[in-house]
C-alpha cells in the first residue's frame, strides 16, 4: 500500500522508519518539517496514495478528515 503521512513529528518519523518493504510512504505533509514533500493537503500531495495516516495535532483532525475526504482518500 502507498501511504501519506500527515504530520511529521515523533510518531510520523517513527512510522516512516518502520514502513515494511510492501508499503511505501509516497508523501509527507507537514507545515514545518524540512523533510516534508508538501506543506498542505492538495490533490498533488495525495496522488498515488491509498491511505493517509494522520499524526498531526488533535485540534486539526476533524478539519483534516474533511480535506482528505474531498479527494476521496481513506484516513486513519
Helix content: 25-40%
Strand order of the largest sheet: 2-1-3-4
Distance between the termini: 14 Å
What is the average of the pLDDT values?
A: 92
Order of helices and strands: EHEEHE
Which blocks of ≥5 consecutive residues have pLDDT under 50? none
Summarize the main sheet: 4 strands, parallel
Number of strands: 4
Shape: globular
Number of helices: 2
Write a short abstract of this structure.
The chain has 76 residues and is α/β, with parallel strands linked by helices. The protein has 2 helices and 4 strands, in the order βαββαβ. It has helices spanning 10-18, 61-70, and strands at 2-6, 24-29, 51-54, 74-75.
Write a structural description.
The structure is a single chain. By secondary structure, this protein is of the alpha/beta class. The chain is about 25% helix and about 20% strand. The chain is built from two helices and four strands. Helix 1 links the parallel strand 1 and strand 2 (about 25-30). The longest helix is centred in the C-terminal third of the chain and has 10 residues, at about 60-70.
Amino acid at each position: 500500500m502507498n501511504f501519506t503521512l500527515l504530520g511529521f513529528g515523533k510518531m510520523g518519523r517513527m512510522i516512516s522508519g518502520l514502513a515494511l518493504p510492501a508499503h511505501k510512504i509516497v508523501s509527507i505533509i507537514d507545515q514545518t518539517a524540512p523533510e516534508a514533500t508538501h506543506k498542505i493537503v492538495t490533490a498533488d500531495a495525495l496522488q498515488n496514495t491509498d491511505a493517509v495516516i494522520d499524526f498531526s495535532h488533535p485540534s486539526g483532525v476533524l478539519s483534516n478528515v474533511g480535506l482528505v475526504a474531498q479527494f476521496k482518500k481513506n484516513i486513519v
